[in-house]
Amino acid sequence: MEELTILPHNPGAAVAILGGTGQQGRGLAQRFARAGLRVTVGSRDPARAREAVAGWTGSPSAPPIQVADNAAAVATADVTVLAVPYATIDPLLDQLRTQFKAGSLAIDLTVPVTFAAGKMAMLEVAEGSAAEHIRARLPAEVRLACTFKTIPAHLLGAGFEPLDCDEFVCGDSDEARADAAALVGLLPGLRPVDVGPLSRARSIEHMTALAIAINRRHKIHDARFRVVGL
Amino acid sequence: MEELTILPHNPGAAVAILGGTGQQGRGLAQRFARAGLRVTVGSRDPARAREAVAGWTGSPSAPPIQVADNAAAVATADVTVLAVPYATIDPLLDQLRTQFKAGSLAIDLTVPVTFAAGKMAMLEVAEGSAAEHIRARLPAEVRLACTFKTIPAHLLGAGFEPLDCDEFVCGDSDEARADAAALVGLLPGLRPVDVGPLSRARSIEHMTALAIAINRRHKIHDARFRVVGL
Question: Is the dihedral of CA B192, B195, B199, B204 positive or negative?
């Protein structure tokens, strides 16, 4: 199957955000809708999600955001954003893996960390990274890129201020990375930095761990990164 | 033994740079000497090192840099910088571990990566990170911090331009981190960012891997990082 990028040719592409009522999912849903994408928040509980989404989009000028159950959201999506905790990925993909459109793009933004006994630590992942773990559970005809792993959830969900940092992108093909970079580029103040194949995801996940460590140690909330020299 | 910081009380502290004729070691030796530290380049071959160092310090205004064999350099050092490739750490520490002064500080800046078949990849390290590998091979009375892992060697060795980025510091005590941060602070344009215990070193090593990946993919040389929001 020839791969094609989606976003450069289709500024109104359909994007499903799973886990759309968390800070990260909410922020991406609102920002993508504002950028002109057709956004559907997928939920296990669409009635509750509809209520949450109505709370954000109350103003008449807010762009519309649809709500559907997870399976329906994924089935119609050009891009599916997995904005759910890493610990819930396995049952979610068990349920949804046959729903994805062939040639559609999944975006992994999970970070495999634990906070056991107040200490943050990286989880070991047999496949090497959360992204590779997800790759192993998606059908081959669904493309996968990883991005939005290091941007603080709190900042994404807090409004529409420019984000003022870089966001790393890796993926299993040039086309998957180009689409993920196009998504990143839709968010004001966020620059995509292509770091190559999906096997780089572990390094990106470590950067998120470092940002969390910096937040905790320095009592701040929004540590994030800028690449200098690029 | 009560731990004490070295650098805040002793601006003329004795610093040994092992591997001082590589780009990284050369850059640190020259920059620390210029900042007023008493710098000794340690080498397996002092005659050859003396020739190399004379080449850098030819100008009458250059601050002096001593040369000694590795054991003599370490024996008199308040701070020993391990500016050698990760692959050479084991035999080096086998030879030198009894030479370190009690209470002195070792600085690990190694990065466990390989470039087999043109592909850069992180090496697995049984102890978790290169820093923890080194910790396991140093006497308990020698303190250890890790820093200067992400600043590009090429940039460090290229002159005295401000470095314009952040450098991550982790270590096995508050005092070790404070000393390492003070060393970082001696280099114009470099801001130390304390990320906590030595167990964070693996995340820092992954950042270096990511910087190398960015350099190779984008055909640049000096990718490095700035923390935004701190």
Answer: negative
